[in-house]
Amino acid sequence: MLNKTVALQPFVDISAHVEGFEIISTQFGADGRVYVLLINQIPERERGMFVPAALKETYTYKVLIVTDQHIDEVVIWGQYYNYHFVQPLENHLLLVGARCTYYDKGKYDLNAKVCDYEGHTVREFLLGDGIQSVQVTEKDTIWTSYFDEGVFGNYGWNNPIGAYGLLAWDEHGNKIYENHTADIADCYALNAVNEKEIWFYYYTDFSLGCITGGHEQAKVTFMNPGISGSSGFCTDGYHFLFDGGYGKHGTFVLKKNEKPGILTKGCKVHFLNEQAKPLVATTQDFRKNRVLFGAGNLLYQVAVEELV
After folding, report:
1. By the 8 A CB rule, do 76 and 95 touch?
2. CA-CA distances (angstroms) from residue 71 to 18, 51, 216, 258, 285?
3. For position 165, what pLDDT does the model report?
4. What secondary structure does DSSP assign to 38-56, as a single string?
5. I want to staple 199 with a disulfide (CB 3.0 to 4.6 A). Which of 24, 44, 49, 191 is the partner?
6. Cα separation of 21 and 24, whole Å?
7. How many angstroms from the chain centroid is the CA of residue 182?
């Protein structure tokens, strides 16, 4: 397999906005801006291994809304929930926790919170336990994918919300799409390109699926990407950049769709930082045709077309 080395320059330094906080995640929004979720202190795992859902004390979150030229801050005080994702939704922010607990009939955590830009809660609803990814389209469709515990159940869920691995919701948390085509045990990666083009990659088949036509007239097609265990990918529809997969996370493979449904073997891509050293990302996100890297307080991005 061929090798390619690509040097990246950071497009923003968020150091001035991070003091007293820790970065949880960095994500693209459908609007092309970057959304960074921070918390004043990472909650400790329960019994050393379980990620808590509801928290025993209050935490303060901060959301950075980042463009090349400007950074806005939204501070959300006094929260008792462990959130992991943030996305723009309508003219608000959607915070989602990966975990939520089922306690008894009709009693469960609401792990999605919609906030205004003053940090006030607008509404809360349930998106299910074991969420791997959350992406909101430009028309405010919320797509959620689920890892194995979200599919098979844990945290009290005998009939898990995410049993089919991939769902879509409206802005109020009403389910509008449920996967019944792919046999998903763990949805490793999601890429909501737009309202009518949703890509996903899943275990156990290691297939790459594409939903077209929107959630109302969904048509699902599949291809074999020839890669096992990739945690994310971006695409312009012809080129695909994949995380390297099992044992190779943090390395990348660029492939082309030269024949319908068949990807080339591709070439390995090695990213360097501005100091010409290997780029070691602490966070990453794939959306549409771009990948976003967070390394310390520096953010980098690159479009798949720039790698060709």
Report:
1. yes
2. 12, 30, 36, 40, 19
3. 98
4. EESSPPPPBTTTBPPSEEE
5. 191
6. 9
7. 20
- Mean pLDDT of successive 10-residue segments in the chain (308 residues)? 93 97 98 98 91 96 94 98 98 98 96 98 98 98 98 97 98 98 98 98 97 94 96 97 96 92 92 97 98 98 97
Q: Please provide the DSSP assignment of 169-228 as one string.
A: E-TTS-EEEE--SS--SEEEEEEEEETTEEEEEEETTTEEEEEESTTTT-EEEEEB-S-S
Q: Do the beta carbons of residue 45 and residue 52 sit within 8 Å?
A: yes
Q: What integer pLDDT is reported at residue 122 of this predicted model?
A: 98
- Provide CB contacts within 8 A for 8, sequence distance 6+: 271, 272, 273, 274, 279, 293, 300, 301, 302
HSE-up (13 A, CA, CB side) for residue 113: 22
With 0.85 as the threshold, say if the pTM is over it.
yes
Relative to beta strand 2-7, strand 267-272 is parallel
Residue 196, token pair as written in the block: 């009518």
- CA–CA gap between residue 239 and residue 244 (Å, rounded): 15
Q: Which helix (H) or strand (E) holds 279?
A: none
Pair 232, 214: CB distance under 8 Å: no
